[in-house]
Amino acid sequence: MARDAYKTLRSGVEATAEFVDRKSRFIAQLVHVESEAAAEAHIAAVRARHHDARHNVPAWILSSGKERCSDDGEPQRTSGMPTLEVLRGAGLADVCCVVTRYFGGTLLGPGGLVRAYTAATQAAVAQARDDGSVVEMCLVVQVVVQLPYALYDRVSRLASDAGGKIKDSLFTEDVQLTIAFKAGDEQSFCDAIDELAAGERLWKATNPQFSEL
Predict the structure, then answer these.
(1) Are 24 and 99 in contact (CB under 8 A)?
(2) Among candidates 120, 112, 99, 6, which has minimal Cα distance to 54?
(3) All domains of the chain in start order, with CATH
(4) Is residue 15 within 8 Å of residue 63, measured between CB atoms?
(5) Can you tell me the distance from the alpha carbon of 203 to that of 145, in angstroms, rounded to the nearest whole number?
(6) How far is residue 39's CA from residue 80's CA, in Å, rounded to a whole number?
């Protein structure tokens, strides 16, 4: 099911973390993806990077609600599902995590595997948060306002009061402001601008799109 807001990793960032249990190494590699093809590309890249590993366990979630995981040869539901559950629990979407396991010579048992894959994925998520790489995405409407210089301060305050953030300012004969709002919050601002302009239409709004506000 598609969602109205979600958290994801910044594009171009790879958060990694390692968990060790009885000499078995579990290396989680978490990235931003926006399609099944991008997730498969990350999985292939990790498998090439760790071609000598016993297992490369993938899990991914898209903002559309589509998700998938695989145990990649581990006992059923001991690895892929725990990895996916961590991503779900963190409220993440448009992400793919691959946990690489180098076998340490000792069988960990189903419970040990669940704990290890969970711990490695949780550590990668925590690393991303600590680095400031986790961002919140929501449905955003951008409103472009064309106004005289004399109204600049007042319109800026109206935008701020409505929860908007000025993304761009263009100063020519008039001032053109591009202001981002969470979808729905822009209406009170647009109504205030209409009142201020005595019926003259000074603004235009985009359709809602997922973006970082």
Answers:
(1) no
(2) 99
(3) 5-132 (3.30.230.30), 136-212 (3.30.70.240)
(4) no
(5) 4
(6) 14
Output the CA–CA distances (angstroms, integers) from residue 163 to 8, 65, 186, 188, in the order listed. Answer: 22, 28, 8, 10
Write the pLDDT tens digit of every residue in 159-208.
999 999 999 999 998 999 999 998 889 999 999 999 988 878 899 999 88
How does DSSP assign 3-16, residue by residue? Answer: -SEEEEEPTT-EEE
Evaluate whether 70 touches 80 at the Cβ level (below 8 Å): yes
In single-letter form, the type of residue at position 120 comes to A
CA dist., res. 33 & res. 61, Å (int):
9
What size, in residues, is the chain?
A: 213
Q: What tens digit of pLDDT does each residue of 103-158 get?
A: 999 899 999 999 999 999 999 999 999 999 999 888 899 999 999 999 999 999 99
SS3 87: helix
